[in-house]
């Protein structure tokens, strides 16, 4: 088990290293990085000074290593727009994003589990059809569009909930649901197909023949194995959640990392984007690592077979 | 599933109804919508009533024809710069469909190649390729697109590249799994005995047997790619203005939703329709040709 975790940890670190190289190379090969950092009005002299100050006159390998060294200690330079250290902005925004993501995950789990399991158990009924409609719609509706409509109607015209920002629990509801919706759709579908497969298997039949209560068969015997595909896809779902979060935070003016990324793009604030991408990539790598460990834990075959 | 020797064999409690897979009703709704939008995209220059780039500040925020103040000159109204919404949506279908189809073709070609190689050669090759696949698969597309947008600048090519660079992994994974199963079958061994080389076995024997799965995956993912492209354009990391793209059109209308709701509403409906059609068609194809395939 420890060997397995160790191997996965190394993999995550390699993935992060690749991303940092991509960022570094892209920033250096697409023109002078100083154009991304200095204001438009900078003179020739400013450029020379900045080049020396930032160490851009040194060899690339040396530059890369010092870039990584600083990134690891959380030093991402100054934001061009906010004129503040990027690390400060990240520290401010990250908790808000995590809170929203946790809330959305909570909503989607509470909705997806009963719906997905019951859709499989009551296959072909109205409930199953409703669940399928929800899941197809969830995967076809553009999140940002839904978010805009919700802001306009629920927050604007009806004035039921706040339109944006954080101000107590009520401000979590709209962004949380918008963010959770897409995850619910996919999760439900996975649970349904997983349950259908498992409910048809010999060991479930055996449990039934033995006289185990139906409720126990479904929620204990069957669900446990139907969860394996869900865990397999958990990493992918998390990366979809991250993508969706950037859009949702933008529309709901949520002061999180996603909103920061949006502001970064609109002002071409390279240090901010670089920091947001690296931070998010690190979080994604960490989540994937946890998922892999969880996976190996519930399904012992993984530990040995791979 | 065949019972292992000595395993307890249980009578089938209820034989599952076998779905009549062939001869099921064609998903006419999906095919119709997809056909319609394809046609619109191809014939955009002929169909669009006005120039999608032509601004006319006197005609800003004209409502759709059925609203008060609307006219047939602008059937779906105009945007902030007085551009005809209908024409922009028609031209926008080119961007969305092209991005969807191109990205998925690129990703599936590369992914299938990796999957075929990994499954055929096995061993070290397989291990190395699959590790790379795993690492790629769970990386959020949007991060790559963001880096490209701030360094190289947003463009159609960047969107396609950013999404394809991540998406191929899904194909590689699924195809490799299929190839592993196929490799156990007699016909591959027979082909080898008959003297077929790696290239011949892969292209003539393995690839055709994975085509069903490829088609299902491709269809299911076109919708997803269209949504991702629209999200990127919405964030300003996708197709740059003034090119009409549905995502950026929604973004432009966002500030004015209260007074000019049509600017954001119609492009969103277009996305919903196309993506819904592709998803329903993909579901149908999967249920018909490859019911075991589990996909997002």
Structural description of this entry:
The complex is a heterodimer of chains A (306) and B (296). The radius of gyration of chain A is 24 Å and the shape is flat. Chain A has 306 residues and is an all-alpha fold. Chain A has helices at residues 2-29, 33-37, 44-53, 60-72, 86-121, 126-140, 143-157, 170-199, 202-210, 214-251, 257-266, 270-298, 300-305. With 296 residues, chain B is mainly α. In chain B, 65% of the residues lie in helices and 0% in strands. Chain B has helices at residues 28-42, 44-47, 85-121, 123-137, 141-151, 156-183, 186-193, 198-235, 246-253, 262-289.
Strand share of the residues of chain B? under 5%
Query: What class do helices, strands and sheet pairing of chain A give?
Result: mainly alpha
Low-confidence stretches of chain B: 1-22
Quaternary state, please? Answer: heterodimer
Largest interface: A-B, 67 and 55 residues
Strand content of chain A: under 5%
Number of strands of chain B: 0
> How large, in whole angstroms, is the Cα Rg of chain B?
24 Å
Structural class designation of chain B? mainly alpha
Considering the chains and any ligands shown, give keywords for the structure:
heterodimer, A: 306 residues, mainly alpha, B: 296 residues, 0% strand, elongated, disordered N terminus
Give a quick precis of the structure:
Chain A has 306 residues and is mostly helical. Chain A has helices spanning 2-29, 33-37, 44-53, 60-72, 86-121, 126-140, 143-157, 170-199, 202-210, 214-251, 257-266, 270-298, 300-305. In chain A, helix 5 (86-121) runs antiparallel to helix 6, helix 7 crosses helix 8 and helix 10 (214-251) packs antiparallel against helix 12 (270-298).
SSE layout and pairing:
The complex is a heterodimer of chains A (306) and B (296).
Chain A: H1 2-29, H2 33-37, H3 44-53, H4 60-72, H5 86-121, H6 126-140, H7 143-157, H8 170-199, H9 202-210, H10 214-251, H11 257-266, H12 270-298, H13 300-305
Chain B: H1 28-42, H2 44-47, H3 85-121, H4 123-137, H5 141-151, H6 156-183, H7 186-193, H8 198-235, H9 246-253, H10 262-289
